[in-house]
Amino acid sequence: EVKPLVGKPGETVVHEAHEQNADVILCGSRGHGKLRRTFMGSVSDYIVHHSHVPVVVCRHKNHHHGHGHHH
């Protein structure tokens, strides 16, 4: 279901997920920080820290630099 949400993105998503009894929240990440702890944008960061359900942050494919490909 697609719904237009008004308000601050992070707060609105967390509130709506709670209202809808969501099982999980999926969100994209547009953060471009060089440090791993800053890889998320502010909205994703807010959702991760305020959600009562699991949050999956999807990073853009180009942000991966061969992690997990050790032989």
TrEMBL record:
<dbReference type="InterPro" id="IPR014729">
    <property type="entry name" value="Rossmann-like_a/b/a_fold"/>
</dbReference>
<protein>
    <recommendedName>
        <fullName>UspA domain-containing protein</fullName>
    </recommendedName>
</protein>
<dbReference type="InterPro" id="IPR006016">
    <property type="entry name" value="UspA"/>
</dbReference>
<dbReference type="InterPro" id="IPR006015">
    <property type="entry name" value="Universal_stress_UspA"/>
</dbReference>
<dbReference type="Pfam" id="PF00582">
    <property type="entry name" value="Usp"/>
</dbReference>
<feature type="domain" description="UspA">
    <location>
        <begin position="4"/>
        <end position="59"/>
    </location>
</feature>
<dbReference type="InterPro" id="IPR051688">
    <property type="entry name" value="USP_A"/>
</dbReference>
